[in-house]
Amino acid sequence: MTASTPRGTLAQRVAQRSGIAVSHVEEVMATHGVAAVATPAARRSMRVHRLRITGSKDESAGGGTFDRSFAFPTGIVMAVGSNFVGKTSVLEIIAWCLRGSPRELQPNVAAWLASVECDAEVNGRALGIRLRLRDGDLITGTVHEAAMVDQLDHAVRTARPLITVSSQDEYAAALQELMLDRLGLEPLHNHDKVNRRTQRHGWPMYFGAIYPPAGGDRILIGETAQGGLAGRLLKVFLDLPRAAVLTRVQAARDAVRGTTRSTGVPGLPELQGRQQTALTTAQSALAALPGAPAVSAAEAAEQVRTVSVLLARAEEQWADLGRTFRLAKGARHTDERALTTERETVVATQLFHGLNPSSCPRCEAPVTEVRRAAEDADHVCAVCTTPLVGDEDDAADLIVERQAALAASTAAETAALAAWEQAEARVNDLTGQLKNAQAQLDAAEAARQVSDRLRLELDVARAEGALAVLAEAGARTDDDLHDDTGGLRADQLLAVLDGLVTELEQEQAAESADLIEAVGDEIAELARAFGMEAVTGVKIRLNSHLAIDKGGVTGQSFGSQSAGGRLRLRIATIIALLRVGARRGVATHPGLVMLDSLRAEEVQDEDAQEILDALIEVAAETPGLQIITTTADQALPDGRLDVDHVLRPATADAPLW
Amino acid sequence: MTVPAGQDAPTTSRMQDAVRLLLLIANAADTLPVGHDAPAGSVAVFRTQVALQKMDFWLRNPDYLAAFLLDRFEETSDPSLREQARTILESDEPEVRRYPMLRYRFGAYEPLDEALSVLAAAGLVFRRREGTPGHTRQHNYYLTDQGQSVARDMITDVPELKYYVDRVRLLVELTGGIGPSALKDMQYEQPEYADAEWHTRIQTIAPRVRERLAAIDAQETP
């Protein structure tokens, strides 16, 4: 599939159509990532091998722990069970693993889960997904890769994971990047006319074609009917040339058109101002995002835990050493006080005893000269005549003793203080480490903003590109229009984008008309095989949905069909994509389909049997197809599917898991 | 004459008590009025045992003195009072120089008799009762000229006792003109003092006063 035609290159054709110089057109094409020649998309494949769930149910569900594994062969796999026994949950848990988040898993059921293991294959590479959950929240998640599915166990035990996350948001963002990359898909853009802004739709949008809405829904494939996305999704899966590129240019065109309309007269300064505002907004939002984390959130969380434990121990030690220090200080105080007391007592004694005794302290009678002479001569007290015993030596010894005690307790206090200060330094160090670890954890948790970063970088690139195109246009006259240098006015830019859209649409129309026709024919044939005998033809419109010719009325819409009809057409569309893709060797749908409740309330018993029979036949003819489906009709698979293709509870009324 | 280095109840020696009392009486006593009936050789009189014990309490409990200094600082905004409190609180003085007293009936109480006998035997201070026999109204303390000169010369003769000389000087400056009962009321303002049970030792308030100083500092430098 190439873009060249006898009418010249894409840029030349757009230049001719819009009357703008080729160099300007090429500039606009470069700005919007439109390559001169389209390259074919890669082959796509996807299938589930194994699912294991563990956890414990609450009392209302009978309580008890569970550890259940399911194997999924290729072809059709049917989970059977009466209502409320977890068969839809099996699809939802697979969606959690492969879509990035469950679509509508009941919160109480999610809360039962402790771990989920899912082995799958995406574009020929085995992926081992391991999720740990608590109270319905994802706690940690890893995705390991191996060449073969049977090597996954080893890889999970020994290899570094492709993805390590510690929150639901992180997981969804990381899985989206992985899946879009592996399957060669681009995010889809569409212009939301009401809010006048461009929306980006990622992997969950595509997953809508793998796990389509239940029977009654009015959307063909995908998750939203907005902006003709279902039709575009169909075209991306049909691998129409540049389907994603066209989507992007259309969104850009719609954005410029919206701007020029709202201002009436295309005012260049205003347009530049808007782009400048968009640029500044995106740049400052980008700058406000935290820097890229050095470690994963799980590693950072582990570091926080480790340092917290060390810090708790260090604080305990610090408190212990603080008590030791205060004890040592108290002992030193006691020794110091004892020494002071002793010294003061000695000097005070010397002072008072050095004075001549003058009177009796009791009666105040004067001490006589005879008594004083006796004290000097006989060493008896001049007041009371008791013999005097000199104890100055004892006092001196005691002072030496007290000095030694004080020296010892002072040394002990100094040592205790040093140890305490050392412990404090360690606490401070660990507090700093904990702060760093916490900051790393915060940064890692902010990694879920990785998709924000991608989007903002895209916004910056777009605004810069638009500003480059618009640059200096205001100063130019009409004579300069065909000059090869310089940028474009808004109306000129719009003309180029309009030309690009038209050319790309024509390119698609020309080169894929028969492909689309083939898919339409295939859908019609399958619809008849599924029991819609009145369908005579189905056409896929280039810019919208299916047009169904049925019972003599042509061009009926998908939404106007009955619930059973919509279910049949939805399955038919997906199978048709696969079969046409297989026949023509082009990449299309990845081949995994999950259908909830083949036997839904809107679908009759015989319809379900009919659809299943048709699916079995189709699966036999379509290599690589894996359809995982559910039914409450215990008898439905009997005689139709092998036992290893049926997931059943142990007894008829028991829960599936 | 030696003192046990007990952990819980550090006590003063009789000689230390005598030094403190002599200095307090010598510095705070009033000149004897003419014609006053006083022991021979007396030159001044210190009135009431209550006042003496209150003053001594502050000498023996630097933490309470620091609190008193901060009270005075808050009343007068004189920063030198705060700085004197800081000098006490930032040192080990509240721990090393603290000799707790028993709480007894009317406040801090420790028998002064032994210390007074040291001073009386040396002829430095004499105690006299005022009032009729059996109905003692109060005790007065009479300082002799000998006592006055020993107290005056103490700072040069016995430099080891400089601490008490300086501290008594500060205390007399602080309490000049405050009557004995007012002194007692001031000490009751500290809950650790008022709440102490009879015959138990009065608790230290050093941690609380240190916090109070920190709060004053924080207020002054926002």
Brief description of this entry?
With 657 residues, chain A is α+β, with helices and mostly antiparallel strands. Helices cover 51% and strands 14% of the residues of chain A. In chain A, helix 10 (268-288) packs antiparallel against helix 14.
Helix and strand succession of chain B? HEEHHHHEEHEEHHHHH
Strand order of the largest sheet of chain A: 2-1-4-5-6-7
**Number of domains as seen in the coordinates of chain B:** 1
Distance between the termini of chain A: 49 Å
Number of contiguous helices of chain B: 11
Largest beta-sheet details of chain B: 4 strands, antiparallel
Q: Looking across the biggest beta sheet of chain B, what order are the strands in?
A: 1-2-6-5
Number of strands of chain B: 6
Structural class of chain A: alpha+beta
Strand percentage of chain B lies at 5-15%
- DSSP summary: helix tally of chain A: 17
Give the biggest beta sheet of chain A: 6 strands, antiparallel
Principal-axis shape of chain A? elongated
Q: Give the overall silhouette of chain B.
A: globular
Sheet-strand content of chain A, in percent, reads: 5-15%
Report the uncertain regions of chain A.
Answer: 1-5, 262-266, 472-486
Radius of gyration of chain B, Cα only, in angstroms? 18 Å
Oligomer: heterodimer
Can you characterise this structure?
The complex is a heterodimer of chains A (657) and B (222). Chain A contains 17 helices and 15 strands. By secondary structure, chain A is α+β, with helices and mostly antiparallel strands. Chain B has one domain (14-216). Chain B has a four-stranded antiparallel β-sheet with strand order 1-2-6-5. In chain B, strands 3-4 form a two-stranded antiparallel sheet. The radius of gyration of chain B is 18 Å and the shape is globular. Mean pLDDT of chain B is 80; it is low at 1-8. The chains are: A alpha+beta (657), B alpha+beta (222).
